[in-house]
Amino acid sequence: MAQxxxxxxxxxxxxxxxxxxxxxxxxTAMKVLDRGRLHLAAVCCGVAERLIHxxxxxxxxxxxxxxxxxxxxxxQAMLADSRTEAYAAWSMxxxxxxxxxxxxxxxxxxxxxxxxxxxxxxxxxxxxxQIHGGAGYMADSAVERFYRDVRLFRIxxxxxxxxxxxxxxxxxxxxxx
Length: 177
Fold this sequence. Notes:
Elements: H1 25-61, E1 63-64, E2 67-68, H2 73-101, H3 107-132, H4 142-149, H5 160-176
Antiparallel strand pairs: 1-2
């Protein structure tokens, strides 16, 4: 059983210190969060790619009024918005991951990537369901499953609201320095 130095000052054996020495635990934990957030941002980008593929394939094959629904301008606009947002999220994520790999500070960038990518994939999933119409809401549809599953991405590794605070606090810290 570990000894305690009191509620406010717990004693931790040196071998159990996060980061290897006293005072580095929080910084080490934040580095792990940055990596996890970058990973989740990349996952969101990958899921968005799959959703775009599913929507484009369906829109090209589904016909209404004698032509593929992919020919309708509003469907094209949804596909274009999805592609544009996915490209932006990929670009952000690749940039932040490269900074992380160079061991540069990335807390704000990782938070921004995870925030944007998780919100983006939610919008892409919504558009994919819209393009599929009633078929997109059926339980045997790939987009229906993704539509439900991507909601978790806005919660895991920091909610969107927490990430907004992380981003803003990093911005404020940079403005003061």
